[in-house]
Write a structure and sequence with these properties.
By secondary structure, the chain is mostly beta strands. 4% of the residues lie in helices and 17% in strands.
Length: 392
């Protein structure tokens, strides 16, 4: 140990550089460390014997600047901060899987909006792709296979509880008074301006799939591709509730269509390409789970109405199937198309009249006495009545 005449007897030198003689380590008992030029090396460490704090020369040899080694400067905080730009520059995750460690805390991305003059987005994640694409197969019947702006993969092995890979919760308390306003938890919009000759365009696609060679899912474990439910509190009231709404829209200025163009508000596809069949295969099932419901199916004709209520595969048409509102004395109208179909209109009115109202007492076999009911049949616009007796 030694001292320096320029620094005074209170400054003790422990180590110096062998060539320049600059001080590398030392100690001082005053509250203020000297900043004498050409005495201290860059990074020189000095212990303040009065406080026990270690200082490092963060300046230069010509102009020393003493920094507490236990403190972090603003510049160092900026250097250590994790930003999107630094991640983009430091990470090359193309074609790689990035595994993040478990976080003790949830990651929250929040932004408070105080006014709105345009659509506000809390965070925007964008992906731009080139003209090439990834080919191959997918677990979907059809749909895009290639790039994902966001991909979330979850693995779950528990036997109780449940897992939501992505959960969107919207708590709306505003009293909506705008016909275009609304609250949505999840929204998918796909827009294309290309001249398409093949492919599919989906606003959303949901698939529930069992994937195992031998394991079975019991009958009591349903797989549901999409579920839409409207529910209300016991105290509140909903004026109009629609579980699932499916629609198509044709603007007033739509151009003429090519032959074979099809618009369907709801399409149900039934596909069984295997050699086995379940106990039941139903394209559309309406389940009255509880209570008494008003209608199972209701056809509502507004504007100019429907040309046909129901059209079967062979071309036969079923009209007035709900309440016979056009032919008020007929419960059912079936229109034939000729050939193997019906030659002309056939209308049936079941149990139209009370017993014995059409004619006198029946005396011929198979039964005598008044018929229980009469069946009215129109054929070629001529009405016929048939007596009906209960079977023995």
């Amino acid at each position: 140990m030694k001292t320096d005449s320029d620094l005074g007897p209170l400054f003790i030198i422990y180590e110096t550089e062998p060539v320049t003689g600059y001080i590398v380590k030392g100690s001082y008992i005053s509250a203020t460390i000297p900043t004498t030029a050409s005495k201290f090396s860059l990074g020189c460490e000095i212990v303040n014997r009065a406080s026990g704090i270690v200082y490092r020369n963060a300046g230069t040899v010509a102009s020393p600047s003493w920094q507490n080694v236990d403190e972090i400067t603003t510049g160092e905080i900026a250097d250590l901060a994790v930003t999107a730009g630094k991640l983009a520059a430091a990470l090359d995750i193309s074609g790689k899987t990035v595994t993040l460690p478990s976080l003790a805390q949830n990651l929250d991305v929040a932004r408070t909006l105080t006014s709105q003059t345009a659509i506000n987005t809390s965070e925007t994640i964008a992906l731009t792709t080139d003209s090439t694409y990834l080919g191959g197969t997918n677990i979907t019947y059809s749909g895009g296979l290639g790039s994902n702006t966001i991909r979330s993969t979850a693995t779950w092995s528990a036997t109780a509880g449940g897992l939501a890979n992505i959960q969107a919760i919207t708590n709306a308390t505003g009293a909506l008074n705008d016909a275009n306003g609304g609250a949505l938890s999840l929204k998918g919009v796909t827009t294309t301006s290309a001249a398409l000759t093949a492919g599919n365009v989906y606003g959303g696609q949901f698939i529930a799939r069992h994937n195992h060679g031998t394991n079975k899912a019991a009958n009591a474990t349903p797989f549901v591709g999409v579920e839409g439910v409207v529910t209300q509190s016991t105290a509140g009231q909903i004026g109009t509730a629609i579980g699932v709404s499916a629609a198509y829209h044709i603007p007033a200025d739509a151009a003429a269509y090519d032959g074979g163009a099809v618009f369907r508000g709801l399409q149900i596809t039934c596909d069984n390409s295997g050699s086995n069949a379940p106990s039941e295969e139903t394209g559309l099932a309406i389940w009255n789970m509880a209570g008494t419901q008003t209608n199972a199916i209701k056809i509502i004709k507004s504007a100019t109405g429907f040309t046909n209520d129901i059209v079967f595969q062979n071309g036969e048409v079923l009209n007035n199937a709900v309440d016979g509102y056009l032919n008020t004395d007929a419960a059912l109208t079936i229109t034939g198309v000729g050939g193997a179909g019906l030659a002309s209109a056939l209308r049936l009115a079941f149990a139209e009249t009370s017993a014995g109202a059409q004619t006198a007492t029946m005396t011929n076999a198979p039964a005598a006495g008044n018929p229980t009911k009469w069946l009215s049949v129109w054929y070629d616009n001529v009405k016929y009545v048939i007596p009906m007796f209960p079977s023995a």
